[in-house]
Amino acid sequence: MTTAYDTFHMGRSSIDLYSDDIGAPFVEITRFAAFVGGSPTNISVGARRLGLRSALLTAVGQDLVGDFILRFLDREGVETRFITRKPGHRTSAVLLGIEPPDRFPLIYYRDNCADMELTIDDVMAAPIAAARVFQFAGTNLYKDPCRSATLFAAELARRSGVQVVLDVDFRPDQWHDPRAFGVTIRSILHAVDIVIGTDDELNAAMLAETGRVSVAHSQVSDARVQGDVEAAIHAMLARGVQAVVRKRGLQGSRVYLRNGTTVDAAAFPVEVVNILGAGDAFAAGFLYGYVNGWGWYKSARLANACGAILVTKHGCANFMPTLDEVMAFVNGRGGL
Question: Do the beta carbons of residue 44 and residue 54 sit within 8 Å?
Answer without folding.
Answer: yes
